[in-house]
Amino acid sequence: MKYAYYPGCSLECNAAAYDMSVREVADLLGIRLQEIDDWNCCGATEYFSQDELTATAVIARNLALVDPQLKQVVAPCAACYLNLKKTDRLMAEHADFNQKVNEALAAGGLHYRPGTVQVRHMLDVICDDIGEAAVRDKVVKPLNGLRVAPYYGCQVVRPYPGDENPEYPMKMDHLLSWLGAEVVDYPVKAHCCGGHMTQISEPQAFELIRRLLQSAQDYDADLIVCMCPMCQLNLDGYQGRVNGYFNTEFKLPIVYFTQIMGIAFGLDPKKLGFGKELVAALPVVRAKVNGLAAQAAQ
Amino acid sequence: MAAATVAENNTFRNEVMAETPNGHRMLHCLQCGTCGGSCPSGADMELTPRALIALINAGQRDRVLSANTMWACVSCYYCTVRCPQEIPVTDIIYTLKRLSIAERRYKDTDAPALAKTFTDFVDKYGRSFEFGLATGYHLLSRPLSALKMGPMGFSMFTRGRMSLLPTKIRNIGQLQAIIHKAREIGARR
Q1: Number of domains forming the structure of chain B
Q2: Do B93 and B181 fall into the same domain?
Q3: Between helices A257-264 and A16-29, what is the axis angle to 10°?
Q4: B77 lies in the same domain as B157
Q5: Which of A6, A10, A18, A40 to mutate to test the interface with B (most CBs of B within 10 A)?
């Protein structure tokens, strides 16, 4: 199966581990990703805060650049995913708006007809298009013994939850169980990490981050897997600052769900971007997954 | 009769509705408070989304556009998916952000500066630029926090998670032409 691929800015650098592991896992599962040539930033939440039409036109350029042979685009980043989806919806549902966006696109020699490209998240592609049997088939190192807390965050499950429950999504839970992990069922799996609030109001952001770490820890998680670069940055990058602020001692590794899939598939951790996280994940994975410690020692 | 007159003359509400996709749903607000009760930032807001909608309905433009509600919003969309009247609360807040920024009504928040720094990089390079955002925005808006960011920034850098140079897309001229045109169309109304 072949999809257009929109990595988004975070995956180029800050979330390189996500990009690396998405590509590795996709390759193994036979998901062919064709990167959109010369894609541009989706504007995150920042463009929509200032100018809706320009925000939408900037995003629509990416949809217009999708290879006409391809009918679906995959975005691993939650903000990119939502922005692409929202743009397609806005253009489809509001004819006057569609006309304005296309007038702007025409200034760059482009056109986009809403509905042409279906916007997908990587998790959906793996769970729905590839499915349980094919995923299980690739597992060579089951994650038995590892307690993994799936963290969904906001913008993949809301406001467009698809077939998921926007308050209690399950896809990543299922996927982790196929990998043999012990899935941690904790109450805040779709709560907010604070998004860009770390840049604007640290007390507000740190409290939201603390709630997530505290809940995962209370439910005995060994690590958290996430599906968004912003979530990973806030929970991992800011974990030290949060500990300083609240005088806590959280030491929870935060990795992308595709990274932990790669471990179960027996892929090289380096190629999956392990080691880029600030709270080291690999020692925990090796210590907890039955049999991995012995293999690592050999 | 009097109530109907107020509603018809409520230019502020009409403006918010016109600027928000499906904004007309706002007319159906029950004032149930599900939005504020669902909001992870509710405690940090002077006015919850419920109160904001009531004030929009009352035509209180000044109070609404100078509220801190918009700048405490984290775009988690809990309010939107929980609203029993299908009001696009998060999108209404985006509209209020835009109006507040356009008229410079915001106070005590660096959120508009962050947004502007972010999109300036997008306009210039076609990509966001985290190092530029961290240095530019922090040094200009909050030099003290830039100091605290230092060690974390260094850790990110040593792990190859922060680039010191921006990436520029190949066809930046095309993107800039689209942006220019979109702004021109937006200014038309």
Answers
A1: 2
A2: no
A3: 50
A4: no
A5: A40
Which residues make Cβ contacts (< 8 Å) with residue A134, sequence separation at least 6?
Answer: A29
Decide if A127 is inside a domain: no
Shared domain for A187 and A291, answered yes or no, is: yes
Same domain, A143 and A114: no
Task: Identify the pLDDT of residue B6.
Answer: 52
Per-residue pLDDT of A169-211, as tens digits, reads 999 999 999 999 999 999 999 999 999 999 999 999 999 999 9
- Here the tokens at position A8 are 């988004």
Residues of the domain holding B72: 2-102
Tens digits of residue pLDDT in B105-146: 999 999 999 999 999 999 999 999 888 887 777 766 767 666
Residue A155, pLDDT above cutoff 80: yes
Pairing of strands A182-183, A147-151: parallel
Indicate whether A126 belongs to any domain.
Answer: no
Token couple for A228: 């968004």
State the pLDDT at residue B5: 47
What integer pLDDT is reported at residue B7 of this predicted model? 56
- A275 reaches B (C-beta below 8 A): yes
For chain A, the 3-state helix, strand and coil shares in percent, each to the nearest 5, are: 50, 10, 40
**CA atoms in the 13 A half-sphere facing the CB of A158:** 26
Structural domain of residue A22, as residue ranges? 2-121
- For residues A263-292, give the mean pLDDT: 95
- Residue A292 sits in the same domain as residue A176: yes
Whether B61 and B14 share a structural domain: yes
ipTM above 0.85, yes or no: yes
pLDDT tens digits for B26-73? 999 999 999 999 999 999 999 999 999 999 999 999 999 999 999 999
Residue B32 and residue B118 in one domain: no
User: CB-based contact (8 Å) between A70 and chain B?
Assistant: no
Encode chain B in three state secondary structure: CHHHHHHHCCHHHHHHHHHCCCHHHHHHCCCCCHHHHHCCCHHHCCCCHHHHHHHHHCCCHHHHHCCCHHHHCCCCCHHHHHCCCCCCHHHHHHHHHHHHHHCCCCCCCCHHHHHHHHHHHHHHHCCCCHHHHHHHHHHHHCHHHHHHHHHHHHHHHHCCCCCCCCCCCCCHHHHHHHHHHHHHHHHHC
pLDDT at A292 over 80: no
Task: Please provide the size of chain A in residues.
Answer: 298
Nearest-CA distance A15 → chain B (Å) = 7
CB contacts, 8 Å: B144 with chain A: none
